[in-house]
Amino acid sequence: RASRRAGTYEVLTELCSRYAASPAFRVCVGHATTVFLLRPDDIGAVLSSTRFATKSSLYSALEPLIGSGLAILAGEDYRRHRKAVTPSLHLDVLKEFAPVFYKHGQVLADSLAARDGSVLDVVSLCGDCANAAICETVMTTDVADDDLGRQGFLAAIPEANKHFMFRLSRPWFLGEWAFKLSGRYAAYLDTKRALDDFTERIIREKKSRLVAASTGTPPCAAPSTTRPPGGRLAFLDHVLCSAEGAALGDDELAAEVKTLVAIASGSSMDTLSLFLQTIAIRQDIQEAIWKEVTDVVGEDASRALSAADLQRLQYTERVFKEVLRFYSVVPLFARRSPEDVRLPSGVLVPRGCHVALWLPHVHRCAEHFQDPDEFDPDRFLPERARGRHPYAFLAFSAGPRSCVGQRYALHFLKAVAAALVLRLRFAVPAGGPSRPQDVPLLLNLTTCVRGGAKVLVRVRPPRPPPPGLPPRPTTPREGQGVH
């Protein structure tokens, strides 16, 4: 029996361990039954099947806030939206985002360097970095940082996640009529208004610009008239410039923008903070990342970072994949069974029940990961990953509903990591965890560090020049915050 004080994370992990010898177990809450799957073959049968393409009704609390986007849609609407969205996250598009990601990583590095020698909880700072970068690359590149609508939108993103978790952890508030009676409903409406107003304004402005520039040809046939002053298009611009995207209504466009922002925001914040917590513990990994970054871009933090540079940061990418495996940042997937389905293990999934995957269990399976409780980025080397079950690592889901933003996420994370390790060192403060296994975890919408990700931040001193060479001049950015 789990401790009365155990949280959802501990309870689900304990249940998966208790029933690990079985292919599945079920949890009943009221009239709702959820079947948790434990075997990759069964998981693959669910994630690869169009019969399980409908998300669990547990996600319904998201819909009033972010609309009916890819996180919620099913069937033909889902396929139509995915066809409109996916090309706008192609590698050719992401090339334009690399400098933006790096710029926001440098802003985060500035903020941390100004607190040189301090012990900081980096979660909110990582969140600010992620939100600003996501807003600029997904929505618009030509809105000032002090724009009130933008500020309200950024402030509303974490609040939206809190409202969703509040309702998800209290099933009696999943119904809209009951939630209206709660003390949080007024704040919920304020959050919804901030998300809606800014999104609708940006869509309206971009459509007006495209109409003004259009001469009967596809809107992006005249890029000089549709591109913002900086010359860079955001995700929304690319969607509007495609025939499939242009066919989406304003509500559909708004839903996709808010879906991408909301999902990317929390997962990026917690992945970054868990990454910093981990490299503070594992100094060997931190220095290996620094060596890779300096080998690729040199030690000049003011140098521009390109998408080609990011492609070369293979060790850094393996570290982030291991962060996503080890901590299972997005820990829970759920679908709804439309009919009685017999899975490969023989488990019968009854019609109408929820089917769930608890990734902290899936990702720690010794059958598919050697020494699964050890933090080892090299388990993602091609030669070691070869032959691994395709449904053993599900950080970005899999099958027809896999995450469309996987490359976007990895580009963002690697760019910010490069900006940080070039200028800063991270260490564990006194009394902090000595191993990644000791980091206490908490389930919100994503997995985060219980009590905050606290690290000691130091400005990285410049490396002494080789004998016979003059000292390398310090760039203005490197000097900021050093006392």
Please describe the structure with a list of short key phrases separated by commas or semicolons.
483 residues, 4-stranded mixed β-sheet, disordered C terminus
Structure notes:
- The protein has 483 residues and is an alpha+beta fold.
- The chain has a single domain, classed as Cytochrome p450 (Orthogonal Bundle).
- It has helices at residues 8-18, 40-47, 63-66, 75-85, 91-113, 123-139, 148-168, 176-179, 185-213, 223-226, 235-240, 243-246, 250-281, 283-297, 307-312, 314-327, 359-362, 382-385, 406-423, 476-479, and strands at 24-29, 32-37, 119-121, 332-336, 341-342, 348-349, 354-358, 424-427, 441-443, 447-449, 454-459.
- A hairpin with a 2-residue loop joins strand 1 and strand 2.
- Helix 5 (91-113) packs parallel to helix 19, helix 6 crosses helix 7 and helix 6 packs antiparallel against helix 13 (250-281).
- The relative contact order is 0.18.
- The model is unreliable at 221-226 and 474-483 (pLDDT under 50).
- InterPro entries: Cyt_P450, Cyt_P450_CS, Cyt_P450_E_grp-I, Cyt_P450_sf, Cytochrome_P450_Monoox.
- This is Cytochrome P450 4C1-like.
Number of strands: 11
Q: What count of helical segments does DSSP give?
A: 20
Tell me what the CATH architecture is: Orthogonal Bundle
Helices and strands: which structural class? alpha+beta
CATH topology: Cytochrome p450
CATH superfamily: Cytochrome P450
Largest sheet: 4 strands, mixed
Integer-rounded radius of gyration: 23 Å
- The total number of structural domains is 1
Q: Label the overall shape.
A: globular
CATH class membership: Mainly Alpha
Mean pLDDT: 87
**Which regions contain 5 or more consecutive residues with pLDDT less than 50?**
221-226, 474-483
Q: Percent helix among the residues?
A: 40-55%
Strand order of the largest sheet: 1-2-7-4
